[in-house]
Amino acid sequence: MQYQLLASDFDNTLVPFGEPKPRPAVVKAVKKLQAAGGRFVLSTGRGYCVVHKEQLGGIRFDYAITCNGACVVDKNGTIVAEHPLTNEEMYALVDFCEDYNYPLQFNYRDAYYAYCEYDALKGFYDAMPKSGLTCLDGEDQDRHLIDMPHAAFVVMPPQELAHFNEKFGHLNLHFMQVGGVGKDGWCCYDVVRGGMDKGVGLADLCEKIGLTLADAVAAGDSANDVGMLKAAGLGCCMSNGTPDAKAAADRVIGDVREDGLAALIEELWFDGPKAEPSGRDLGSAWGEMEKAGVSE
Length: 296
Prior knowledge:
Mean pLDDT: 92
Number of strands: 14
CATH class of the largest domain: Alpha Beta
């Protein structure tokens, strides 16, 4: 079977942690895939506003699944499908985070806006200059009068998630932990509407462009890739991936630092040798996420 589309996660799938862009072999393979008529889809927890061309090493995606599936765009940034937060969902997050002074940002089309604790969030991003992430001061809380955000980002102690759900559980918001628990005992969470994940974004995209999920290959390495790995016709987890991502995948492929994605492309699209998983044990990707601060 000839697959029509490859959807790839960004951090530690397309680009190794700590490196500024994809390695040359991966860039070459993706461009070769596209020249042969395949479509390359970037799939990330990041918003479109912080997907920077220089971090893609010359790769030009055909589509991007952003905000963990809540917003799908084409190569020009035009929205193909979207599931923005509602006013009620926004107000619940603002109400809770204001009460306890927890940093809260909303991910809009043009930028990340911090609605609560801007200085804390700005300092968080400034400490990771290579991440390409930043935010604007939105503490006047009026940006949503223009349009609605597709996702939110919250920093709080993990036990507070149960506290939030006691009050606002009826909203069924989907909290996805990003990285490990910090030294202060707090965690970072991406937040989208209930039922949203990268798998939904992939399904939306396939429907819009006239493909089926069976036509799609997905590659990822961590918890927020699980839905996409399960949804695709072929789900592939990097050998450096987390146990839950490996369990969700149809197969495990090579390590990101051994150009595992390039080997997969050569195998599936150009009848190359089977892309065997790496034998290296680099430890849990969650540990690397904690060191890097953010994974998308």
